[in-house]
Structure formats: structure tokens, C-alpha cells
Amino acid sequence: MLNWWLATISLGGFLVISIGLVLYTLKSSVCSDDAYRVDPLPNDDTESKE
After folding, report:
1. In 1-50, at which residue ranges do the beta strands (DSSP E only) sit?
2. Where are the transmembrane segments (predicted)?
3. CA 28 to chain centre
4. Residue 33: what are its φ and ψ, rounded to 5°?
5. What is the pLDDT of residues 7-49, one digit of tens each?
6. 41: closest CA among 33, 49, 30?
């Protein structure tokens, strides 16, 4: 019975660590400054011309 609990806890820990590493990798690889270069915030001048 103890072996099943240890296996469950170790697999749960492995799952948590894996998810954490994936999220950390995604967070470090995505630069939020790119969003402003691709789709900048509109100026007030462009809204008044419409």
C-alpha cells in the first residue's frame, strides 16, 4: 500500500514540475513587447478622423 502512495506522490510531483517547466519556457520565450510593435495602440488622432 505504501508503494502505491509513493508512486502516486512521485508521479504527481513529476507532473507539477513538468507543467511548471513548460509554463516557464513559454513565459521566457514570449516577449510582450512584440505585441506593441505588431499591433500598436491607436492614437487619438486616428480615431477622430474616422
Report:
1. none
2. 6-26
3. 8
4. -70, -25
5. 999 999 999 999 999 999 998 888 766 766 766 666 666 555 5
6. 33
